[in-house]
């Protein structure tokens, strides 16, 4: 027997908002991502020039040298709007909560050698400061960038970086039985130890880059593209060989996050480079220039672990980044000729 | 490398949170600090020690993700159920939907502006504690703009006037009132922005902007919007604590900050109050089932709560904002003067207007015993008679706008509600006009800023808005004449509503 629920049928007059329909075609239902993203940022008829930047409008496409006909070509392949982003992160956060509880309940930190912990403090924990710089840099893109599609993803990225800095802080606290001595040692190294000074200088130099797209590229493509594989693959593998997988368990979020982050940033470079020859040339130039600098900044850190083999490790990572740029973004650049 | 020698000590919650936020920062040595934070000193605010910043709330990202995701899951479940059940048919009356049109075109874009503005100050402030608090508000505001769009998306499918909200916000005459408000704050320096938005707007006035719309939704059967309101409430509470902390922090840091902060409080109180004109008329005229009158809301949320707040701030040397007493004198006329204006210009508005019916006039007379029957009812009765005689009144000339708040100059003298208030200033050989002493003061303090205002009426006369005639301007607004504008009585919204409700009753 068939059971009928009687409902009122009312016919919709339209499927979505005008600005969304003009992009996806009229008569089509829009996704939540599309309605939450397209054309959100005002583009015309601003009232006052900013006191802090009288040379530009409040939102101004000329704050970068990159030129796009339509910044909404820079969509997010993950289709993150706030709800999708925060729910994904909440699921990952649950896994991390279990991992931290696992390590803590089994007393794993007490089993680890103090010298090994000190090495973590010298090589991994200072990255919480790098993440803090990444948080500020992505916040700058979210603030001064153009088009809600790109800037909202930069906002999510900025908060992700704060989350990662906080996971690293928790690792420091956990390895020190909830004390702060390891974090203090790591911060002292960040400020003074020779193997971290080039990286700190790079971070401070990034904080004063004025072109927001250059900043996005230098931070999220080049620096992350070399630092994450170096630390969370190569160095972490060494640490696992020495002391088991405790650290890998506590940094699981970073691996998963990085894989997802590269999908987003690759797409941005690809779209921008494909828009014009001038963009392509500029983006490739920035990649060349910043990969040279990032590589030099990471060498002393890599040398702490790989000694004379550090150059070879960085050669591999740089080749991998170039291959990724070629394959995912259609970008290539020749290394700078040594003077 | 040194080896840690001290015995591990357990951290308290407060110190643990400091480790999770401000301890991430360091004193730079390769770049000068004023190059990293070039906006910090622009406005003359003196901060001696950012470490004295008290975190207004302590929320790490993992906890943030967990709580916010839970709220999002619940909210989207309700939004989905609302759409599936065509619950838009359960609102009190289709006139109510016009309050939502005003909200989507006027308020939702401000949530986006707040998202970007808090990203700006979240980067500009040199203290990591303040950075984190502002960045968190920045993504909260993104949450609000997106959940509002998703909530109201369903109404857009069945009612007109929502469709071009993004396009309209940057062009339509009355929407330059909210737009210029936020443009003003964002184009100021970081300390003024946060005083304007976190303190004057969020802390002092949220209960008068956001809450009337949400309470209106609750009273008028709009389950989706009221669920959004409840879901945003805990975010708003965080934003309010940030607003208060900012003011106290600036005042505690240096005595020279007091006169600057007081000037900003004066300015942003008046700017915010003028913006609330739109809310006042919404509360008194656009809700078929009313929550409270504008006058009652102003008495409760500003005169009582705001008065207590400023009494508390007196120990820092802060006094009540200038011209607050004018707002009290205007409380029994503000909404009526505003609704009459929109009734006049209903052909150029993207929502419908109408005259209150007899029971609504009785409510207005009861709530405004000193003013309604004497001053506003006779005017309405005249317009109703005109409408019945086939001469529904629309004002064919464009109004003069106030150079600062950008509202048509329709307000009356503080001490004489029957005389229109005009003020003017002269600057570099030009005359500028204002609706009030409050707006004139704001102009006179920063004329070089307010001469830049993109005034919709001036822009129309200068030929920047699609042409010189009303139909041309409406086309430029993407406002479909006969569908999105004019009186509710003649609207397709009303015809559809009657058909749907009739069919629903028959079905």
Automatic annotation (TrEMBL), chain A:
Which ranges form a coiled coil? Answer: none
GO molecular function per UniProt: oxidoreductase activity, acting on paired donors, with incorporation or reduction of molecular oxygen, NAD(P)H as one donor, and incorporation of one atom of oxygen
**Presence of keyword Oxidoreductase:** yes
Q: Please tell me whether the keyword Protein biosynthesis is annotated for this protein.
A: no
**Keywords, ordered alphabetically:** Monooxygenase, Oxidoreductase
Identify this protein by name: Phenol 2-monooxygenase P1 subunit
Q: Look up and give the organism this protein is from.
A: Plasticicumulans acidivorans
TrEMBL record, chain B:
Q: Which domain of life is it from?
A: Bacteria
What Gene3D superfamilies would the database entry show? Ribonucleotide Reductase, subunit A
Q: Which residues form the YHS domain?
A: 412-454
> Which GO MF terms does the UniProt record name?
monooxygenase activity
Q: Which SUPFAM superfamilies match?
A: Ferritin-like (SSF47240)
Pfam families (UniProt xref): Phenol_Hydrox, YHS
Could you list this entry's UniProt keywords, alphabetically sorted: Monooxygenase, Oxidoreductase
Report the protein name in the record: Phenol 2-monooxygenase P3 subunit
């Amino acid at each position: 027997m068939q059971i009928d629920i009687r409902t009122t049928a009312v016919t919709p007059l339209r499927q979505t908002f005008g600005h969304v329909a003009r992009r996806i075609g009229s008569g089509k239902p829009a996704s939540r991502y599309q309605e939450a993203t397209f054309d959100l940022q005002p583009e015309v008829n601003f009232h006052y020039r900013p006191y802090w930047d009288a040379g530009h409008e409040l939102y101004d496409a000329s704050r970068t040298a990159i030129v796009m006909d339509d910044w909404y070509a820079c969509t997010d392949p993950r289709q993150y709007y706030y709800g999708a982003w925060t729910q994904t992160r909440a699921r990952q956060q649950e896994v991390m909560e279990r991992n931290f509880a696992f390590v803590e309940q089994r007393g794993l930190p007490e089993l680890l050698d103090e010298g090994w912990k000190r090495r973590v403090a010298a090589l991994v924990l200072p990255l919480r400061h790098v993440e803090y710089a990444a948080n500020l840099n992505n916040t700058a893109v979210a603030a001064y960038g153009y088009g809600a599609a790109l800037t909202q993803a930069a906002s999510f990225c900025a908060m992700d970086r704060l989350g990662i800095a906080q996971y690293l802080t928790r690792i420091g606290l956990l390895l020190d039985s909830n004390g702060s001595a390891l974090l203090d040692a790591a911060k002292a190294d960040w400020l003074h130890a020779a193997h971290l000074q080039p990286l700190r200088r790079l971070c401070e130099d990034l904080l004063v880059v004025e072109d927001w797209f250059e900043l996005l590229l230098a931070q999220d493509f080049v620096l992350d593209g070399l630092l994450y594989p170096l630390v969370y693959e190569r160095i972490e593998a060494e640490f696992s060989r020495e002391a088991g997988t405790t650290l890998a368990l506590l940094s699981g979020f970073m691996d998963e996050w990085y894989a997802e982050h590269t999908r987003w940033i690759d797409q941005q470079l690809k779209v921008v480079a494909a828009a014009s020859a001038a963009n392509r040339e500029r983006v490739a130039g920035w990649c060349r220039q910043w990969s040279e600098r990032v590589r030099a900044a990471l060498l002393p850190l890599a040398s702490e672990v790989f000694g004379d083999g550090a150059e070879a490790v960085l050669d591999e990572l740089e080749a991998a980044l170039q291959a990724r740029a070629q394959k995912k973004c259609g970008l290539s650049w020749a290394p700078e000729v040594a003077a | 490398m040194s080896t840690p020698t001290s015995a591990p000590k357990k951290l308290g919650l407060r110190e643990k949170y400091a480790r999770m936020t401000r301890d991430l920062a360091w004193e730079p040595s390769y770049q000068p600090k004023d190059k990293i934070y070039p906006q910090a000193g622009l406005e003359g605010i003196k901060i001696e020690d950012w470490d004295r910043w008290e975190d207004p709330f302590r929320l790490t990202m993992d906890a943030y993700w967990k709580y916010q995701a839970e709220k999002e899951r619940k909210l989207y479940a309700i939004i989905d159920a609302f759409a599936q059940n065509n619950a838009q048919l359960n609102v009190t009356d289709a006139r109510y939907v016009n309050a939502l049109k005003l909200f989507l075109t006027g308020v939702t874009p401000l949530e986006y502006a707040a998202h970007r503005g808090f990203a700006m100050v979240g980067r500009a402030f040199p203290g990591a504690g303040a950075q984190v608090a502002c960045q968190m508000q920045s993504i909260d505001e993104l949450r609000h703009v997106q959940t509002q769009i998703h909530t109201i998306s369903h109404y857009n499918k069945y009612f007109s006037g929502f469709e071009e909200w993004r396009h309209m916000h940057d062009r339509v005459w009355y929407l330059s009132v909210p737009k210029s408000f936020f443009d003003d704050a964002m184009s100021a320096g970081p300390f003024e922005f946060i005083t304007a938005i976190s303190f004057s707007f969020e802390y002092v006035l949220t209960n008068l902007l956001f809450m009337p719309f949400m309470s209106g939704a609750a009273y008028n059967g709009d389950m989706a919007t009221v669920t959004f309101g409840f879901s945003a409430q805990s975010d708003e509470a965080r934003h309010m604590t940030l607003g208060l902390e900012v003011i106290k922090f600036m005042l505690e840091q240096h005595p020279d900050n007091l006169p600057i902060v007081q000037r900003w409080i004066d300015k942003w109180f008046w700017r915010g109050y003028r913006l609330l004109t739109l809310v006042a008329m919404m509360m008194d005229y656009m809700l078929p089932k009313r929550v409270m009158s504008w006058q009652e809301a102003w008495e409760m949320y500003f005169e009582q709560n705001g008065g207590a707040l400023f009494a508390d701030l007196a120990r820092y040397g802060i006094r009540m904002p200038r011209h607050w007493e004018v707002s009290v004198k205007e409380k029994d006329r503000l909404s009526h003067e505003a609704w009459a204006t929109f009734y006049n210009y209903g052909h150029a508005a993207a929502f419908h207007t109408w005259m209150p019916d007899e029971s609504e006039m009785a409510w207005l007379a009861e709530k405004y015993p000193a003013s309604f029957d004497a001053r506003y009812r006779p005017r309405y009765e005249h317009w109703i008679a005109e409408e019945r005689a086939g001469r529904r009144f629309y004002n064919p000339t464009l109004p003069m706008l106030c150079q600062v708040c950008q509202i048509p100059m329709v307000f009356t003298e503080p001490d004489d509600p029957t005389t229109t208030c005009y003020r003017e200033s002269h600057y570099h050989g030009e005359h500028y006009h204002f609706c009030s002493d409050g707006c004139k003061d704001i102009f006179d303090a920063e004329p070089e800023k307010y001469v830049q205002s993109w005034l919709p009426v001036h822009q129309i006369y200068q030929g920047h808005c699609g042409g010189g005639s009303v139909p041309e301007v409406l086309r430029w607004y993407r406002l479909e004449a006969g569908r999105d504008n004019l009186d509710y009585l003649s609207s397709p919204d009303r015809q559809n509503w009657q058909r749907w409700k009739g069919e629903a009753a028959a079905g």
